[in-house]
């Protein structure tokens, strides 16, 4: 796989995880590497990871209403 394809795939996965987070009741997060951080530019997407931060994970596990 080319490097660009990997990057594109990574961005897509992050956006999917982010949207899924909303589906599970998570709101936007301000932690820079949290997947629930709102991203306006692709550069923002590249900064975050595909993972939830500690707080979002806790919310997710407790099940937000
Ligand atoms: Zn969002
Ligand atoms: Zn978070």
Can you give a write-up of this model?
The chain contains 3 helices and no strands. The protein is elongated. It is mainly α. It has one domain (3-62). The mean pLDDT is 92. It has helices spanning 3-23, 42-47, 54-62. The longest helix has 21 residues, at 3-23. The protein binds zinc ion (2 copies). One zinc ion is lined by residues 29, 31, 34, 36, 52-53, 55-56.
Give a short synopsis of this structure.
With 65 residues, the protein is mostly helical. It has helices at residues 3-23, 42-47, 54-62.
Number of domains: 1
Overall pLDDT, averaged? 92
- SSE string, helices as H and strands as E: HHH
The portion of residues forming beta strands comes to under 5%
DSSP strand tally = 0
Low-pLDDT stretches are none
Q: What small-molecule ligands were found? A: zinc ion
- Count of helical stretches: 3
For the largest beta-sheet, the strand count, sense and barrel status come to:
none
